[in-house]
Amino acid sequence: MQLENIKGRSYYLKGGTNTGVYIFEDNSALVIDPGLSNSRANRLIKMFEKQGIKVKYIINTHEHSDHYGASKVILDHFKDCKSLSSYDAKLVIDNPYIFNMYTYGGKSNRFFDDNFKNRGEILRVDETLDEGKIILNNEEFEIVNLKGHSLGHIGVMTKDKVLYLGDSLLNENILEKFNFPFIIDVESELNTLENIKNMDFDFGVIGHGNPLLTKKEVFDLADYNIETINKYIEQIKGVLDNKCTQEELLAYIIEKNNLILNYKEYYFSKSTLASMVSYLIEKDMVEYKIECGKIYYSLKK
């Protein structure tokens, strides 16, 4: 495990989930998205201790356990360390069962929950962050709203003009592998991707895959994410020329795009589909009717 310098005091660590690090003048550190597991946390602690770095803050960009799961062990080791997130993310991080319930659509079961066995210990979030400028250890950072992939997603900009983006956009390999991206709010995600293209930064760090991107690469990737979302919206609209249930819609998406899903991924995809249908409803493009105990959706004629 090795810290990779980006610019100035801004660094990253590559991993299953990429981690951002900002090292202050006093050799303390801000850690952004430490990762999933206790073993990841212990490797981070060992690396920081070896370099004489004390972790002072952890910022969780959003409420998905592959980004925050390692935080508790780090907080227990560095006693004065504070955990930070948005208010919406805190609600789920402090109560992780909420994520399983709203993704599954009710009380989840062992088929779903067993997929989260590697999630680290339950975490506390000490303070919540609002969009805008903040001061940590006498240095200024900017918190940006990146809502869409999750309700509480934020990004962190350092004074080095390095923007830590979490999962607000996914690289091409991830999109090709999982294909149907997990999005809780489609309109917010599209707005986030457009807003990223208007932000002033030099480098971006994303949560999965190759971490470090130039500004142009971030902009290109934002466009690719937008194209991917719009591709699925058009597929859904095509099916909704005739009445269709959400289950039938999801089966069509899975078959057409050759998606290979496990139990958890099926419900992730179901959640994304529901968000896309809601997006079309809010655009006043879709109507519904209930027949024979089923809800059918169709495009407005």
From TrEMBL:
Its EC number is 3.-.-.-. It holds the Pfam family Lactamase_B. CDD domains: metallo-hydrolase-like_MBL-fold. InterPro entries: Metallo-B-lactamas, NDM-1-like, RibonucZ/Hydroxyglut_hydro. Keywords: Hydrolase. Residues 18-208 form the Metallo-beta-lactamase domain. One of its GO terms (molecular function) is hydrolase activity. It comes from the Bacteria. SUPFAM superfamilies: Metallo-hydrolase/oxidoreductase. PANTHER family: METALLO-BETA-LACTAMASE DOMAIN-CONTAINING (PTHR42951), METALLO-BETA-LACTAMASE SUPERFAMILY PROTEIN (PTHR42951:SF14). This is Putative metallo-hydrolase.
